[in-house]
Design a protein that fits this description.
Chain A: This is Nucleoside ABC transporter ATP-binding protein. The complex is a heterodimer of chains A (504) and B (306). By secondary structure, chain A is of the alpha/beta class. Helices cover 33% and strands 26% of the residues of chain A. Chain A folds into 3 domains: 231 residues, Rossmann fold (3-Layer(aba) Sandwich), CATH 3.40.50.300; 163 residues, P-loop containing nucleotide triphosphate hydrolases (Rossmann fold, 3-Layer(aba) Sandwich), CATH 3.40.50.300; 73 residues, no CATH class.
Chain lengths: 504, 306
């Protein structure tokens, strides 16, 4: 596949403004770029969802103009979307063959399962064709997507942010699948904003910035630093710079906490934890091990079954979320769009969400728009929210800027403690850098920071101490400085191993 | 004991027909992702035009055909509003119900006058299947039932096979679950949805015709008496499957039959008549088992927005 000077202009926006790319047979080619660099627009054009303004896409030596995904699929382009196009209520085989089912009137279920089994053996994508997709893990669902592409005789596989939803283990499996495809001679286009993954899996990398392809480089000669600089267009600090912590008095103590989630499942099964002023405590763990329920319980969103939460000397176990906020707990929830912001509200309304009842934002129960707007505009400047327009709806902002708004709201209230759950999820390098700096600044101001993250790198680079949670229990707490990836990774699976630096 | 009397089971079967047919129809519509609460109205239209054409042509079968055509056309209007212009499907369905109630009453009075439809209107035959009626007990249940009872039983089986064992059935279900996914695989979402909704119109009209020219041979204003809504409950109760809908319709049919049989036994008839409606509320409130609707049920699909 070859892409020559492809452009896509929307009114007022040049989403793609000169994209050049050559994909060779049998190579894994990564497209790296920050969110908003134009990666999705490019994908949509290749897949027939958008029509290019100018330029050309050549596939197998011919210029192609796909007007719908159907035509792209027919030509042999297989796309695995970031959000899967699968039907959870149907089986694996049904999902794979849908649209091109075996049989005349009757759906030949046996034949469908046979064909899917053959494909899964050929490409070594082990899966049970009769399993219901809803019952599969995210990693296995992704395999179904890849099988779908091969069932339609794809000659090229496009993976759009394929690791966004995967666990580290599943990512590893995906990479071995990609290597298998490469061995079969299937070219793979790998779209990502994650440096380490791109470096690990690709043969060549094309970096996109502001709608343009900046450069294509051989992965062999590239380093995280050179790629990050290309992506952002300036020198980027990858490693968080921070001085030694000076932890003070405990600000938060959790004793034997038990929490059930909304489905009445016990998620936190007796956690003991202590967070001090002036330290960042990282809570590491594989998704689904109770870390987010623990964070919710401390913030007051879930009621504990049993146990005690002491905050700055007060037993806050039975307090409402509002009372906790008043007392000095700030919370950046895991899902910024669901729990962090009201997407249909503008930035002014969102920044005063916690304090709208109080002066100076409200007088005698009436909101003072001017005061609120001034306050929001100040935060927008301080936290570099773009575009700097307080009247924008939260939904119109990019993920990184949404996160900045939440962080601005929480931090500017001068809390004693911040709980940050997945604060950089889905953000690009530039935005992550900024958020990390804020967390370290809070710590240096003597506040307690509880960082809950699924990204091991983030935990390792920020935390002064690392607590590892598995199956609702804290397996171990280790000092951040000495911790290694392997050690924490092992603890995350619940095995104590032989960690010599154990402190708990 | 009344339960050992085959008559109550015969009545149950008979009462289940005008519930099972629209419930299966609704299943087809909702499985493709269009919420259909217009079964009540479409049944009324089916019931009225069945009688009208049966009288005018002198043939109950032509009356049935007219019912199907009119029901199908009404459903097509619903489909157009729900699919092409992405209107709110609940409001649309309610609109059709109110329109149908008004239209049929108006036509009844203007075309047939205030005495109602003529008693000379031909009705569909009642039949007994030779051999079947010789079996003790079972035979009594199936003795002298409307031909539509047998047609319904065939339709239940065919519908289930169709929805779960044919290629088109698979496509219908996929469109109701995740239309964008189906679209990217080359399935025409709109066409499948039209098909599902119109099919539901045909089934509902058949249920209506059963009331007017299957059981009786005349039409009275609002003769469906809420059966379209009970069918809606039966569909949910039956977890959006034809077999389940039929089973639920039998339960509702039984409660109606029970009400009739127990009349004059010292229990208030008003209380007994309440049974099917109370069951409906329970079913619709989701108290009877957990039913999961098709994921894209009620959400218009606009391919341009994907």
């Amino acid at each position: 596949m070859e892409i020559v000077d492809l452009k896509k202009w929307f009114p007022g926006v040049k989403a793609n403004d000169g994209v050049n790319l050559t994909l060779r047979g049998g190579e894994v080619h990564a497209i790296l770029g920050e969110n908003g660099a134009g990666k999705s627009t490019l994908m949509k054009m290749i897949y027939g969802l958008l029509e290019p303004t100018s330029g050309e896409i050549r596939f197998m030596g011919k210029a192609v103009h796909f007007r719908s995904p159907r035509e792209a699929i027919h030509a042999g382009i297989g796309m695995v979307h970031q959000h899967f196009m699968l039907i959870p209520a149907l089986t694996v085989a049904e999902n794979v063959v849908l649209g091109d089912e075996p049989g005349r009137i009757k759906f030949d279920r046996k034949e469908a399962q046979k064909r899917v089994r053959e494909l899964s053996e050929k490409y070594r994508l082990a899966i049970d064709p009769s399993a219901k997709v809803a019952d599969l893990s995210v990693g296995l669902q992704q395999r179904v997507e890849i099988l779908k592409a091969f069932y339609r005789k794809a000659k090229l596989i496009i993976l759009d942010e394929p690791t966004a939803l995967l666990t580290p283990q599943e990512t590893r499996e995906l990479f071995s699948i990609i290597r298998g495809l490469k061995a079969e001679g299937v070219p793979v286009l790998f779209i990502s904003h994650k440096l380490d993954e791109v470096l690990e899996i690709s043969d060549r990398v094309t970096v996109m910035r502001a709608g343009k392809t900046v450069e294509t480089v051989e992965t062999k000669g590239a380093t995280p630093q050179t790629l990050a600089n290309l992506m952002v267009g300036r020198e980027v600090v990858l490693r968080v710079e921070k001085s030694d912590a000076h932890p003070g008095e405990p600000i938060l103590q959790v004793h034997d906490l038990h929490v059930r989630d909304f489905g009445r499942m016990e998620r936190v099964k007796g956690v003991n934890l202590e967070l001090r002023r002036g330290e960042i405590l990282g809570l590491a763990g594989i998704d689904g091990n109770g870390q987010f329920e623990l964070a919710d319980a401390i913030a007051g969103l879930l009621k504990p079954e049993q146990g005690q939460i002491i905050f700055d000397g007060d037993d806050i176990t039975r307090w409402s979320p509002a009372e906790r906020t008043e007392r000095g707990i700030a919370y950046v929830p895991q899902d910024r769009q669901l729990d962090g912001l009201v997407l249909s509200f503008n930035l002014v309304e969102n920044t005063i969400l916690r304090d709208f009842r109080k002066r100076p934002f409200a007088k005698n129960g009436v909101i003072d728009r001017t005061a609120a707007t001034n306050y929001t505009e100040r935060l927008i400047r301080e936290f570099d929210v773009r575009p700097p327009d307080a009247s924008r709806k939260a939904s119109e902002l990019s993920g990184g800027n949404q996160q900045k708004v939440i962080l601005a709201r929480e931090v500017s209230r001068d809390p004693l403690m911040l709980i940050a759950a997945q604060p950089t999820r889905g953000l690009d390098v530039g935005a992550i850098e900024g958020i990390h700096r804020q967390l370290v600044r809070l710590r240096d101001e003597g506040k307690g920071v509880l960082l809950v993250s699924l990204e091991l790198e983030e935990i390792l680079s920020l935390s002064d101490r690392i607590a590892v949670i598995h199956d609702g229990r804290i397996v171990d707490i280790v000092p951040g400085a000495q911790a290694t990836r392997e050690q924490i990774g092992l603890l995350m699976t619940g095995s104590r191993g032989h960690s010599e630096v154990s402190m708990s | 004991m009344i339960f050992s009397d085959p008559e109550i089971w015969a009545a149950t079967l008979s009462m289940a027909v005008p519930l099972a047919l629209p419930a299966i129809g609704g299943t087809f519509s909702e499985r493709t992702g269009v919420v259909n609460i217009a079964m009540e109205g479409i049944m009324l239209i089916g019931a009225f035009f069945a009688v009208a054409f049966s009288y005018w042509t002198g043939s109950a079968w032509l009356g049935l055909l007219a019912a199907l055509i009119c029901g199908g056309l009404t459903a097509a209007a619903l489909a157009w509003g729900a699919i092409r212009v992405s209107a709110d499907q609940t409001v649309l369905g309610m609109g059709i119900n109110i329109f149908a109630a008004g239209l049929t009453t108006f036509l009844l009075n203007t075309l047939f006058g205030f005495n109602g439809t003529p008693i000379s209107t031909p009705k569909l035959p009642n039949i007994s299947i030779p051999g079947l009626d010789n079996i003790p007990y079972i035979g009594v249940i199936f003795q002298n039932q409307s031909i539509l009872v047998y047609i319904m039983i065939v339709l239940v089986i065919v519908s289930h096979w169709f929805l779960f064992h044919t290629r088109l059935g698979l496509r219908m279900r996929s469109v109701g679950e995740h239309p964008l996914a189906a679209d990217t695989l080359g399935i025409n979402v709109w066409r499948i949805r039209y098909f599902g909704v119109i099919l539901s119109g045909l089934f509902s009209a058949l249920g209506g015709a059963y009331l007017s020219i299957g059981v009786l041979n005349g039409f009275t204003a609002n003769m469906t008496n809420g059966r379209g809504y009970i069918a809606l409950a039966a569909m949910i109760f039956g977890k959006w499957t034809p077999l389940g809908s039929f089973g639920a319709a039998l339960i509702f049919g039984f409660s109606t039959a029970l009400g009739i049989v127990l009349q004059g036994q010292g229990i208030s008839s008003n209380l007994l008549q309440m049974i099917p409606y109370a069951l409906t509320i329970l079913a619709l409130a989701g108290l009877v088992g957990r039913a999961v609707a098709p994921a894209a049920d009620g959400i218009p699909y606009d391919p341009r927005r994907s």
